[in-house]
Amino acid sequence: MPQPREANRPSWLSNRYLRAVLASAVFAQLGIWIRNFAVLLYVMERSGGDAGAVALVSVAEYAPLFLFSIIGGVFADRWRPRRTIVLCEWLSAGSVLGVWIALRAGDWHAIFLAALVSAILSQFSQPAGMKLFKRHVPEAEMAVGMAAIQTIFAVFMIAGPALGTFAYARFGIGAALVITASAFALSAISLAAVPRDDASAGGHSPADSPAGDPSRLSTQFADGFRYLLKSRVLSLLSLSFAVVGLGVGLIQPLGAFLVTERLGLPLGALQWITIPYGAGELIGGFLVMKLAMKIAPQRLLALGLLVNAVGIAATGLSTTLWLCMAGQFAIALLQPAIFAGNAALTMQHTEERMIGRVTGIRTPLLTGAMLTMMSLAGTLKAHMPLALMYVSAALLFVIALGVIAPLWRSSAPSPSASNAASHR
């Protein structure tokens, strides 16, 4: 007898927390992209295109990641996670409105605070979000949940720049900031559907936490490092993540050279390799959501690393446009599998009480490794053939795949167990 349609519905779609966090992510991404591009375009206009002022925008957006991610992770483990996230979203909205008021008063330099304050607050809300994810999502559904979040990120990677540019060009900086603040507020409101924090489950409110005890902070900070290093799985995942960052950073600045040197085309042809990459990101997000329901996260991660290695090598060795486009599409198509598989495994093998610190420690690994290699790419380009640089990046992905090889036969729950998993 045929089963009712509702019975065949994937269980993760019925998870109240996942629905709430996905809605929150949509609004948060909308606010972030409109803010980033409106601020960038406004600074370029007011500074007359001054490179130092434009660079300061990037500093305001990325510096907090390194300065506050680990601190934010410590506090995420001490504070009640739901309250922390909602408070951070409201504070982000309030800070943007404060900058808008300062702009109306005539101080345009206050615009840098819009990016800085929101970026700092995100380093507290993100690890708290992972803590809630651990608490409310069954382990067998973590990979598909992460893939859904990656899909949202992919959509905004494509649509975000256009939305931010349109908001600034059509409405101006004041209205763009108001839209940004409204998006952050809607993100906070969306989280109202998340079950309230249970004080008995651990965590304190920000007001109750002994934040003024630096010795205790440093102890908890060190506990996070020791916890990560003592776990074989977390250590291997973190090392693999850092190696991926090195591979990405090595080729990130080389797209223009790929078009002009390897393909022998004018620089304007760069769009023909960015279009398939964007399409691959969008399609890949939905594909990985399907895959995450069928294969274990460690195999999802391995598949993403393998396909990316092949795609990077094909892109760098190609001398024809169609093969280069195919390589770019393949890279983007399975890139979400790397992030979704890695994040799901990290949460499956981390106790809830340590999720904030482990997340806070791991967050800068990819970005730090990537930025380090990006800073060296120009020098390496002067001494290495372009094709060799791409092959080297592909080899780094193969190394990352080898690092996680011991996890392929891990006993982590597989998606087939999702029907037996109960929602917390």
From TrEMBL:
UniProt superkingdom: Bacteria
InterPro entries per the UniProt record, alphabetical: MFS, MFS_trans_sf
Keyword annotations from UniProtKB, A to Z: Cell membrane, Membrane, Transmembrane, Transmembrane helix, Transport
Location of the protein in the cell: Cell membrane
GO cellular component: plasma membrane
Pfam family, one: MFS_1
Record field: transmembrane: 21-43, 55-76, 85-103, 109-130, 142-163, 169-194, 233-257, 269-288, 300-323, 329-347, 359-380, 386-408
Topology with respect to the bilayer: Multi-pass membrane protein
Record-linked Gene3D superfamilies: MFS general substrate transporter like domains (1.20.1250.20)
UniProt GO MF annotations: transmembrane transporter activity
Record carries keyword S-adenosyl-L-methionine: no
PANTHER family, per the entry: MACROLIDE-EFFLUX PROTEIN
Name of this protein: MFS transporter
Organism listed in the record: Cohnella nanjingensis
Lineage: Bacteria, Bacillati, Bacillota, Bacilli, Bacillales
